[in-house]
Task: structure prediction
Amino acid sequence: MSKLKTGRAVRCADPFRISPVLAPRRAPLARQAKPPVPPRPWIILLLAVSSYAAEFPVQKYGAKGDGATLETDAIQKAIDAAAKSGGTVTFAKGTYRTGALLLKSGVEMRIDEGVTLIGARELSAYPVMPTRVAGIEMK
Result:
């Protein structure tokens, strides 16, 4: 226990800690306005680059969109081209009949209104690939 000048006893659990009763009051500091942050050119460049992605229309690779032609090869060529530099595979309005497509990293597929992808009925359009399900190798 310690005595104040007024003679009151103040009890504190930690002898090295100042009791709230004894703690001096400080005047609140005036808030200072933060200086404006200058624009960072690399952020602007990054936003400009990310907002622009090359488009790869499947028609450029031979797709017709008539619903009768098997367009797997044309769509896959567009996906492969978009994967090299990163981009978006686009489709014009129409119906595209396709088999198995192997999507790749960095590729977006934009399927707008008026575009329909339908699966081919031929089993030959879907190659048998080795796979693993729950740790079991399957074919």
Q: What stands out?
A: The mean pLDDT is 79. Residues 54-123 form one domain.
